[in-house]
Amino acid sequence: MARSGRGIPEINAGSMADIAFLLLVFFLVTTTMDIPTGLQVTLPPITDVPPPDTKQRKRNVLEVLVNANDQLLVEGELMRIEKLKDKTIQHLTNEGKDPNLAVSSTDAIVSLKNDRGTSYDMYVRVYNELSAAYSEVRDEYSIRKFGVPLDKLRSEDQAKEVTDKYPKKLSEAEPVNVGGN
Known about the structure:
By secondary structure, the chain is an alpha/beta fold.
């Protein structure tokens, strides 16, 4: 028997680089990149001077708590999120009428505290309701005073007057365990 001079057959690797390149292009084209989205929040400027120590009257602060079970507590009472905006508007526009709410719009503060177990969805929903309350009272004041909503004002001075009348004092505390297991 004669043995042939052939060795182990080889695989032609000449087109492997082409195949790898095509796979790379395929995955780059078909992969979607998630762009992180967040809340647009204006933070106070950084200063070396500590803020003044102010003692706020209890009635000027609207306490909003969200526990680990995503239950909303406003001033210690359970509340549905659909009523949060109206309660916040009452607090901001009270002007001293109700002894349990803010003395004036410039003194009104909304304090938001979340439990560490609060879902992000619930946090965003609560934050949106509070922001919507501020927007609504500012727009109503602007329409009463100048005949147009805040975003349609042409004068910086008029816009400043509206935001000075209803400053957005939304205090967010560090998440803590506020109960609700």
